[in-house]
Amino acid sequence: MVIPVFYLEDPPSLHAIEPTGTASPLTRCGLTYLNEGGANFVFRIVHPPCTPIPHRLQNRLLRIRKDLPHIQSAEFQLEAFYQHFHGLFPEKHLVQHELIAIDQSVLALLNTELQAMDRPSHRAQDFLPEEDLKALLMTDMTVCTDEGVDEVLLQLKPKWLAQSPDAPGHAKRCRTCALRACRAGRNVRTATDRQGSCPLALMSEVAEERRNAVESVTDDPAIREYLLGEVSQGLLRRLKHAQMSLDSGGVLSVGDDEQGSLNLCKAMTLRDCSLFVRRLKSTIEAKLGDLDLKQPEKIKKWKKVERDLIDGGWYTNTEQKRFWMQEEVCQLSRQ
């Protein structure tokens, strides 16, 4: 269902009722639910046929935070993005963000639509705030899935591109593969686990290992070659370097030092970002997204996970017999 709204150019804002008494350009458009994660809803912005699309809305999605106490405001998210991550990568390789105001009436309509939808059971009680707020316009990296349209999107989680500094020296699994194995022992399998590849292999010095890793994440020949090429490999090298430089000592070494905690939060954000690779016919572009700064409240959890992986033998493939499986995915298991 399309929720009709009005877009006001100055200041950038969305309204359910047509604003009056303004000389700013006004455009009719609509919002449709696209997807949601643990922290945000994402809506597609749709436009009537043959209607000029305002420049600010071109190739953009709308992301609105959920009404949950631990979710930071859009203003905070945007400030943190520019302060901590924007300068680490070429702008062309980043999902762009811009603030837009959403009035209460729009949020009420969207919440009504969310209540009527068949959504994942574990998110069914998540809704939008009821007061006016700011949201984010973000680069639209989706593709058209209509039959005959030659467009492909790969959404990849690069995860930990270097081994955890806390891992045992004789590890047979990297941090990502160790956590995958640990979750499998609890019969849990996430979308990242289903990628079926080792992050270390994506940047292996052995060409065959890189190719095998790429072939495990996409069937598209052109995207495979792109991921093996210098542009993509250079971007992954930047990401790996940033992860390592921000957390050179390991999660377990972080104490109460504010800067150390911040650096770890930045490193963990980079270890959980997404790489969007989109092919439109013969054109391919890649952008990093999901760069919302992690918060220090998670450090306790990260430390527990690290200790569990070490003490449980998940790094060394010496986990308890009832969980044990020969590691075959991780690059470290073949060394």
TrEMBL record:
It catalyses: 1D-myo-inositol 1,3,4,5,6-pentakisphosphate + ATP = 1D-myo-inositol hexakisphosphate + ADP + H(+). The keyword Protein biosynthesis does not apply. One of its GO terms (biological process) is inositol phosphate biosynthetic process. GO terms for molecular function: ATP binding; inositol-1,3,4,5,6-pentakisphosphate 2-kinase activity. Its EC number is 2.7.1.158. Keywords: ATP-binding, Kinase, Nucleotide-binding, Transferase. InterPro entries: Ins_P5_2-kin (IPR009286). GO terms for cellular component: nucleus. It comes from the Eukaryota. Belongs to the IPK1 type 1 family. The EXKPK motif is conserved in inositol-pentakisphosphate 2-kinases of both family 1 and 2. Phosphorylates Ins(1,3,4,5,6)P5 at position 2 to form Ins(1,2,3,4,5,6)P6 (InsP6 or phytate). This is Inositol-pentakisphosphate 2-kinase. It comes from Zymoseptoria tritici (strain ST99CH_3D7).
